[in-house]
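Reading group handout, session on sequence-to-structure problems. Before we discuss, look at one worked example. The prompt was deliberately terse, the way you'd type it at a terminal:

> structure YtkA-like domain-containing protein

The input record follows.
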Amino acid sequence: MKKLLFVVVSLLTMIALVACNKDSEHKQMKHDMANMDHNDSSKEKQQVAVQTDWKFEHYPQANTTNQLTITIKDNKGKPISEFEVNHEKKMHLIVASKDLSKYQHIHPTYKGKGVFTVPVTFTQGGSFQLIADFVPKGQSDTVQMHTVSVKGNTPAPVSLTPDKTLVKTANGNQVSLKIDSQLKANQETMLNFHFEDAKTKQPIQDLQPYLGAVGHVVILNQDATKYLHVHPMDERVKGSNAIFHTTFPSPGIYKIWGEFQRSNKVFIVPFVVEVSK
Ligand SMILES: [Cu+2]
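And the output record:
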């Protein structure tokens, strides 16, 4: 009996450890959690704990431009003043409606002393997730999230349904996403974007670099709480394919936005996929 109890306890400990590990991976993506607790493991200590203030000039209202000020501070409340330039910018900001039907990727201006500002226009009312992605000097990629409730006309949420075919057209560019047929959580997955001219069906050879890479891929889970920013395998533009590697952290439905540039115009192609256990 004692032995059995020991096994049960060991198992529970193992489960707790696995959960904790997962949790810290989580926190790498979702740093706002990092401030709260879990300061015990050594992995945590290497990460910079940051606090973020989000301030709008006016109460957020649909279709009204509003100045957003984001202030990044360390865990003692002192502004962090130096940031690495990451893909040509000091901060990348994703603005997504909670149902993921609306998406913007914008770049706040750095004003010094930890302060970033950017005009934001929400295209409808309802709940939006703001995701700031930045690298404090000498630290790793840091992500902070903030949920905003926007006044104004709020359409019914669009339900997120996995795409039957992963082919989309934007700005006359037909983009097919080739992906492992068995998408599984916690398994490295290759995302292969292939580009053709929508009219001629000829492979596109003249993609341009966008923010210093062949393209950018942003992935959010169904409730916009898990964020993945994926960079290409090869940053140079070559031929008509762009290949990215990523690992989905848990099963569920995810939306993937591929952002590319051609003829000096950025185009965004969204895909919805389901990830199994
Ligand atoms: Cu960006």
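Points for discussion. First: Residues 89, 92, 105, 107, 211 surround copper (II) ion (CB under 6 Å). Second: Residues 49-150 form a domain with the Immunoglobulin-like fold (CATH 2.60.40.1930).
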